[in-house]
Design brief:
The structure is a homodimer of 250-residue chains. With 250 residues, chain A is an alpha+beta fold. In chain A, 20% of the residues lie in helices and 28% in strands. In chain A, strands 1, 2, 3, 4, 5, 10 and 11 form a seven-stranded antiparallel beta sheet that branches.
């Protein structure tokens, strides 16, 4: 299905499933919307932390159409999350009832892009083979502060075959707008992960430690996590795995 | 002289000359200071136009010390320009009398960095050989808008020996934080430059058109030019050629 057709399904609430595997070859993006009061500090946070927060588009206050998709940001994602004062309030299928004229929206690159590149090159990704969500962990790696935004990085983990590690690093480093090269390889405790079998988000898939090594990438959940620390009166994000499908080829 | 010693000279107003050729090997930066009200739109403008506006550091409201230099941004440049409502009001040696608590300062990469790299590789730069300021031109190349910030790109021109063109492009493309690869080669009229002998800023140095070709780079004057279009009630910049000398090695 073409992105515009797929987005139309979401707009009409005919479909609210994950965008994983949808519209192959088109860039998908994380979404975070904040009142304009937070916009400078959040953009600066992204600029200082480009690995977890690779900015691919920004919609200024009053704008609802991204540059990278002929879409309405208020309706064209399958599912959204509304946070008030740092607490999840509810999930919704569109933002018609909560939209404010001063909302600024940030679209950030996502790991779907580099995962596809890895699979195309024959790299084995266990969570995809098992049809599971990738496991994500809060770490002790500090982000660079920007104004009120500060906190530790969230990472995603993929257990990579040892003989495929070099190729994996080489491929993902070519996607700086999709978190780029890994930020850590092996030894989870060095970045504050005490129990790799117990992720903070997503699902752990057991792997053979003789065959595979855990590889960690900066994760797009970081800005949500850091954003909630600030307890903004309103913050809207895509629901996990329910991204904006853009019109841009990967 | 070490950067801290050189900056001390500026702080005490013992020296107010150009920083060109000072503290070899240390990064120098353009400075633009705006009231916080403009900060988000200006940072977004830089993010959308990274070739003319490569952000190397941002000082949030209330901060006067950059991350890349143990300096006081109000005193440690040799000379500043004060603009009010889009008009140059005066040049000053420090900002003590005009500093506002809501000032946000942007430090942007400058072409001194790639010029040094070119000269080290034996590329001939006419303006340096003649000890002149590089010529700069307003073009018809549109920048990407961000809020109130919009306008055309300003470029600098260096006439490069034809046999050194490929090497010049290769070297400068390695410095994305110093404007990167050229944005145009030859044919000035294609980017709206009617008379190459009559630059809008800087000085033209005649060259043999059989031997050399004009090569154009995105220029750090662009954000000042675009900033003044907005007519902010206050805007402060370094005086041309009077940069911040940072503690960072190039």
């Amino acid at each position: 299905m073409e992105p515009c057709t797929q987005r139309h399904q979401y707009r009409e609430n005919l479909d609210s499933e994950t965008t994983s595997g949808k519209c192959d070859g088109y860039l998908q993006a994380n979404m975070i919307t904040l009142p304009a009061e937070y916009a400078f500090e959040f953009l600066l946070f992204c600029q200082r932390n480009p690995k977890p927060c690779p900015v691919v588009d920004v919609l200024e206050a009053g704008q609802v159409t991204p540059r990278i998709a002929d879409a309405d940001i208020r309706t064209d994602l399958p599912k959204y999350r509304i946070y008030k004062n740092g607490e999840l309030e509810r999930e919704v299928l569109d933002l018609k009832d909560v939209w404010q004229d001063d909302f600024v929206t940030f679209l950030l690159g996502c790991s779907f892009t580099f995962e596809r590149a890895l699979v195309e090159k024959g790299i084995s990704l266990l969570h995809q083979e098992m049809n599971r969500v990738v496991p994500m962990y809060q770490t002790t790696i500090p982000c660079e502060d920007a104004g009120r935004f500060n906190g530790e990085m969230v990472v995603s983990m993929r257990a990579i075959k040892k003989e495929e590690l070099d190729e994996t690093i080489r491929i993902t480093s070519k996607f700086p707008l999709a978190h780029g090269a890994p930020i850590h390889v092996g030894h989870p405790s060095e970045i504050g992960i005490e129990n790799i079998e117990n992720p903070d988000y997503g699902e752990f898939t057991p792997f053979d430690e003789e065959e595979r090594i855990p590889v960690f990438w900066a994760c797009g959940v970081t800005p949500q996590y850091v954003g909630l620390n600030v307890k903004p009166e309103m913050m809207v994000t895509h629901a996990p795995g329910h991204m904006l499908i853009t019109d841009q080829k990967e």
